[in-house]
Amino acid sequence: MANVEIKVPSLGESENEATLVSWLKEEGESVAVDDVLAEIESDKITMEITALDAGVLSEVRKHAGDTVEPGEVIALIDTSAAPAKKSAKKPESKRSEKAEIESRAEAAKRAEAAKRAEAVAKQVAEQAVPATPAPAPEPEAKPEAKEKVEKKAAPRPAAAGRVEERMAMSGLRKRIATRLKDAQNTAAMLTTFNEVNMQPVMDLRTKYKDKFEKKHGVGLGFMSFFVKACAHASAQFPAVNAFIDGEEIVYHNYMDVGIAVSTDKGLVVPVLRDAGLMSFAEIEQGIAALAAKARDGGLMPDDLKGGTFSITNGGVFGSMLSTPILNPPQSAILGMHSIQQRPVAENGQVVIRPMMYLALTYDHRLIDGREAVQFLVAVKSYLEQPGLALLDL
Questions:
Q1: Distance CA 35, CA 29 (A)
Q2: Whole-prediction pTM value?
Q3: From residue 65, how far is each of 61, 68, 98, 259 by CA, in Å?
Q4: Residue 325 vs residues 173, 285, 328, 330, 372: alpha-carbon distances, Å
Q5: Same CATH fold, 172-390 and 3-88?
Q6: Beta 248-250 vs 189-197: how paired, if at all?
Q7: Cβ-proximal residues to 53 (8 Å cutoff; 6+ apart), any chain
Q8: What is the tens place of the pLDDT at every residue in 20-54?
Q9: How far apart are CA 327 and CA 308, in angstroms?
Q10: Do residues 189 and 333 touch, judged by C-beta distance below 8 A?
Q11: Where are the domains of the chain?
C-alpha cells in the first residue's frame, strides 16, 4: 500500500486554524489528480483541497465541522489500490443535491410562513369590529344574534406566527468575531472625521471615464483616487502606514492597501500590493480582479497576506457615517461613505456640492491625534485637488 497524506495547506499570515466544511469525496471512492476532495474555511477565505495524486481515498481522519491546522493530515490516498467502490456521485452532483435540498427546505419554510400569515389574516378579519357607528339595538334581539355580537366584540388575540430561531454560528463568523474583539482589546482605537467635496473627482471621471475604459478595459472608479490620495498622504505621515510589533515599530517604504470586500460569507480584505507605485488603471484592474476572486471564492492565502493600510467603503451600502475597525496588525483604516448633495459655503456663498464624510480609525498607541488629523486633511486635499496626485506633488 502506498499512502499519500492529504494535508491542510498554509492558511496565510497569522492564520493557525480553519474549519473543515465538507468532504466532496467519500472513503473508498476513486480520486483523480486535481479532483476537489474537501473544502475548508478560515476567518478570511474558503479554500478547496485538491488531490495531487490519483488513487483511492482510503482513510478520512477529519470530518465536517472539525477544526484543522496548517500541515495537519486529514486523509490518506492509496495510490496503489483499485477503487473499493465506484463513486456514486461526482462532486458537482453532491453540490447540486445539497443545493436542491436547501432549496426545498427554503420553499417549505416560505410556504409554511405564507400559510401562517393567511391564517392570521383570516382570524383577524373574522374578529374585526366595523368602524361605523353602531345601530340602535333591536327591541328583542334573538339569543343567537346576541351571541354573535358578543363574539365579535371579544378582545383580539395576540398575533400568531411569532417565530424564534436559533442557528449555530459558522466557523467563519466565530473567527471574525474573535479577531474583531481582539482588535478592540489590543489597540487604543480612536476615530477622526472630515468631509470632502467630491465635485473635482466627479468632474474628472465624467470627462475621461469613456476614454479610460476604452483604453484600459476597466471602469474609472472612486477607489483609485482614494488609494492614490492615501499613498501620497502616508509619505508625509509614515506612522499611519506602520504597525507595532512587540516593543518595536515597523515602518514601510511601500504601501500595500487592503481593500475591504463584502461577500456572502462575510467581509474579506484582499491586499493590493505596491499600490502607491501603481497607475490609476493598474489600481482599478487590481481591485476588480481581487473583488471578483473574493466573490467567487477564489482568493488564496497570498492574496490576504500583509497589508499595511486598509480602505473600506460603506457608502456602497448607503452608509453616511461610521467608525471602521482596525485590521490587525495595521494601525489605520480609512472609511469612505455615501456621497450626499449638501449645502456648503464657498467664497461667502452657499452652494450645493456632492459631499462625502471620511473617517480614519487609528491606533493611538502609535499615531498621535495630530498626525491622524493631518493625514486625513492631506487625503482631503488630494481628493479636492486631484491634479496634485496626478502630478506627484
A1: 11
A2: 0.67
A3: 12, 9, 16, 29
A4: 16, 26, 9, 10, 15
A5: no
A6: unpaired
A7: 4, 31, 33, 77, 79
A8: 888 988 888 888 888 888 888 876 677 888 888 88
A9: 9
A10: no
A11: 3-88, 99-128+149-156, 172-390
- Give me the sign of the Cα torsion angle 277, 282, 284, 287: negative
DSSP secondary structure string for all residues of 191-219: EEEEEEE-HHHHHHHHHHHHHHHHHHSS-
Mean pLDDT of 327-355: 95
Cell numbers at 166, concatenated: 436559533
CATH architecture of 172-390: 2-Layer Sandwich (3.30)
Peptide bond into 9 cis (omega under 30): no
Is the CB of residue 217 less than 8 Å from the CB of residue 352? no
List CB contacts of 207: < 8 A, sequence separation 6 or more: none
How far is residue 393's CA from residue 377's CA, in Å, rounded to a whole number? 15
Tens digits of residue pLDDT in 185-216 = 889 999 999 999 999 999 999 999 999 999 99
Architecture of domain 3-88: Beta Barrel (2.40)
**Active site members:** 364, 368
Amino acid at 300: M
**How open is the CA angle 288-291-293, to the nearest 5 degrees?**
110
